[in-house]
């Protein structure tokens, strides 16, 4: 029996997964033209896992979201989790990726992902998790400012992440009312 509501191969699904595959192929193409891009096999495996989780999370959002708002909130949560982990592991949000303060960003996102899975993306729980992540962005920036002299804190980046996490919290709040 096939699901006629969400056909397995539709244009959006093909475009989404195709875009993720293109992102994964981009460093391989860049490596042909410059030495600046120098990925190992492990880098490609890690990127494939993260991109696969991003695609799977968006798929999950539209399958389990009880309303359009909840689906959008879950998709935004997935995208922000991906962007936080990707940027933090690639170059570090503050300083190098190995700086201890960057572990705070990673641990917070992993904690929110665990909460999401344990509580099955319940909007009330997710609202709290996203709000906590929004508040944590500037707090970790302040920790870095005081404990990492000489490192510049990108307040604009932290502000954008905080605002996006707050928007996700707002979407989950509105989904609670649905």
Contiguous low-pLDDT stretches (5 residues minimum) are none
Main sheet overview: none
- Calculate the terminal CA-CA distance, rounded to whole Å: 30 Å
Which percent range fits the helix content? over 70%
Q: Globular, elongated, flat, extended or rod-shaped: what is the shape?
A: flat
- Overall pLDDT, averaged? 91
Question: What's the total helix number?
Answer: 6
Organism: Qipengyuania polymorpha
Protein name: HdeD family acid-resistance protein
Keywords: Membrane, Transmembrane, Transmembrane helix
Transmembrane segments: 12-32, 44-62, 74-95, 101-119, 131-149, 155-172
Describe the protein's architecture and organization.
It comes from Qipengyuania polymorpha. This is HdeD family acid-resistance protein. Keywords: Membrane, Transmembrane, Transmembrane helix. The chain crosses the membrane at residues 12-32, 44-62, 74-95, 101-119, 131-149, 155-172. With 178 residues, the chain is mainly alpha-helical. The protein has a domain at 67-177. The protein is built from 6 helices and no strands. α5 (123-147) packs antiparallel against α6 (155-177). The radius of gyration is 18 Å and the shape is flat. The protein starts with 10 loop residues before the first helix and ends with a helix.
